[in-house]
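Need tokens for this chain, all 274 residues.
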Amino acid sequence: MPTYAIGDLQGCHDSLLHLLDKLKFDAKADRLLFVGDLVNRGPDSLAVLRFIKNLGDAAISVLGNHDLHLLALAEGFGRVHKGDTLDAVLAAPDRDELLHWLRRQKLAWSEGDFLMVHAGVLPGWTVEDTMQRAAEAESVLRGPAYREFFAQMYGNVPVAWDDALHGIERLRMIVNTFTRLRYCSAEGEMDFHHKGAPGTQPAGWLPWFEVPGRKSAEATIIIGHWSTLGLINRPDLIALDTGCLWGKTLTAVRLEDRQAFAVQCPKASHPKSR
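Here are the structure tokens for all 274 residues:
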């Protein structure tokens, strides 16, 4: 059973179909891993959600920040951002079914030596810590109090993990780590302001995966989220957001042999609109 990890789709349904044609994807024999941000900014988020949901057990997806943004808007929280393309999902006749499915997707997935999250893992967290923290937040997203979480989801604090965190601050910290992290300090304090490629950040900040002594370094972590990284395919990291939305490529990596596959994408949005 070949397993292909695929980068951020953000509503680029046609590009996904072209990539799957290139992979000769067989839903009965192959498995797809999606790194999150299935929706938003691209042309057809509704088709993406319907397609991946209908794949059933052949697809596994983790939640990205744009997926959570959709879920929050659907509950009446947050505000519509310039460049959002979520109206078709919110107006769809099967909206409730799709959003119910999306809200039950994972924040982290682990199997063998692989760990998948949308954005990152705090350097002080082991793989076991990561899965435990993900399970905490997933239980809330799937439970009766999910609307209370979305009402208070947005925000940049706290920026540093403390085992004593509780309530909404603990949940927001977990979710922000998994869906928004790029840079942090050597001590694990998160920064949400800098989005450029490594080397463009101010002194004192490191890509989370370059922090010395990172406790999850024994795993191969699969991420999306950070389009200015481009493709990274190294023993401890597979980064897959290769800018499909911006007219670059949509990329898949076959986990069994680390072979990469890509298709060229039409530009659906401009990076400044993000």
